[in-house]
């Protein structure tokens, strides 16, 4: 692992460790409906062995565990120990007993070959510094005929990663001067996301990794927030936290006001903020 890769993973781990207690619990609905939809597309079957890469609090892991039933086994891995603890507690709260959660670097899963029937990853593959190489490792973990299913944003150049397109106009580009150069959207796009932008490139990457029957579908996921303030508070618990952490207090306050005002303008009366977020769903089968 290079020094830059180690530093990147440390930042991601720290960000999600600090956010774990409130992650996806701020009155904003997005990761849960997206996770449910991914599980619907992946269609886990009773008795299957499921691996969830970057499981977070279990938005994908737990619905999958319910479908595979007591004869199945679901393992969730996450690089952030605090996320793992929260996911374990959530499985207990929901009374789901066929789930195990471990701290593990999802890019290099230390797991036996051919030990899973289905691998899931909801908005997690996008964080891997060399996801295309990781896909080949995932293929080796799958039994013959095993499947992979994951989601990513519908990436485009000159937009902020992880955020719906409307936010590119709301976040002034001059704020990027506070980010390390490697965290600029164009740099992140080039380093991590360019292969995800065009379906042909994504399909080619999966085939090189050992998959076939690649299917890609872009669908909107409705994001709802009680208010603009609720959305901005929630943004501190997910990928955008990496921007907030680098902003000086005055500029963070100005951005907060700008976002709250624009988002509240989308509300009808006292109703919630509703944003359609384009999400890419990818499924494939291991080629053996």
Automatic annotation (TrEMBL):
UniProtKB keywords: Methyltransferase, Transferase
Domain Methyltransferase: residue ranges: 50-146
GO MF assignments: methyltransferase activity
SUPFAM superfamilies the record matches: S-adenosyl-L-methionine-dependent methyltransferases
Extent of the signal sequence: none
GO biological process terms, semicolon-separated: antibiotic biosynthetic process; methylation
InterPro entries: Methyltransf_25, SAM-dependent_MTases_sf
Name listed for the protein in its UniProt record: Methyltransferase domain-containing protein
Lineage, top ranks: Bacteria, Bacillati, Actinomycetota, Actinomycetes, Kitasatosporales
């Amino acid at each position: 692992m290079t020094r830059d890769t180690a530093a990147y993973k440390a930042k991601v781990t720290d960000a999600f460790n600090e956010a774990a207690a409130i992650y996806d619990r701020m009155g904003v609905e997005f990761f849960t409906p997206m996770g449910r939809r991914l599980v619907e597309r992946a269609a886990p079957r009773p008795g299957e062995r499921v691996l969830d890469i970057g499981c977070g609090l279990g938005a994908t892991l737990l619905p999958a565990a319910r479908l595979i039933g007591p004869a199945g086994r679901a393992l969730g891995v996450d690089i952030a120990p605090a996320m793992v603890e929260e996911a374990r507690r959530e499985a207990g709260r929901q009374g789901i007993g066929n789930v195990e959660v471990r701290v593990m670097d999802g890019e290099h899963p230390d797991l036996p070959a051919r030990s899973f029937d289905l691998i899931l990853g909801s908005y997690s593959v996008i964080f891997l510094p060399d996801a295309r190489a990781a896909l080949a490792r995932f293929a080796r973990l799958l039994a013959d005929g095993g499947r992979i299913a994951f989601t990513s944003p519908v990436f485009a150049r000159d937009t902020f990663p992880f955020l719906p397109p409307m936010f590119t106009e709301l976040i002034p580009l001059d704020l990027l001067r506070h980010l390390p150069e490697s965290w600029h959207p164009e740099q992140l796009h080039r380093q991590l996301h360019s292969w995800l932008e065009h379906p042909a490139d994504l399909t080619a990457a999966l085939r090189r990794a050992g998959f076939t029957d690649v299917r890609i579908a872009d669908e909107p996921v409705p994001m709802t927030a009680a208010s603009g303030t609720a959305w901005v508070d929630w943004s501190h618990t997910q990928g955008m936290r990496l921007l907030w952490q680098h902003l000086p207090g005055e500029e963070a306050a100005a951005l907060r006001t700008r976002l709250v005002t624009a988002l509240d303008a989308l509300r009808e009366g006292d109703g919630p903020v509703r944003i359609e977020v384009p999400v890419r769903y990818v499924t494939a089968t291991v080629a053996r």
